[in-house]
Please model this.
Amino acid sequence: MSRIGRLPIQIPEGVKVDVHGSDITVKGPRGELSRSIDPDMLITIEGNTLVVSRPSDGRNHRALHGLTRSLISNMVEGVSSGFKKDLEIVGVGYRAQSAGDKLTLQIGYSHVVEILPPQGITITLSDPQHFSVHGIDKELVGDIAAKIRKLRPPDRYKGKGVRYVGEFVRLKPGKSGKVGAKK
Model:
């Protein structure tokens, strides 16, 4: 049995879960998420816990068991508390500005890069070098943060670029000439 799949999901106060066939809808104080899951997975709601089970020990069912449980758990956590990814900009002259909903980045290109977040995602700026991506959909928050990081990934020699807060960037040594190579 899957170690992840067999764990029950606790449904917090104020969160409502509706299951209609293979569609699941989760409503909470931060919003509403819905997703279509594999129709073979069995979902039972008992009080304030939700349990995902599989019909057989077939390879496909074993693979979907933990995945389905994780997706539903992320939906419940998202509508109750939300998700956040923190990013930072490292580099001389690199900075971010916020104008309404959109984020404007100056990250070493000849032009400024403007990012308009999709619906359900907010980008907050704490200072010109640090900003956060917030939302209720874990997949979408991670995707937007990865796309922003991809605009200027950290340089291997100086470490300049956009990175996650706490991300370790291993710097490569630059060129080193041989001492006394010319005779």
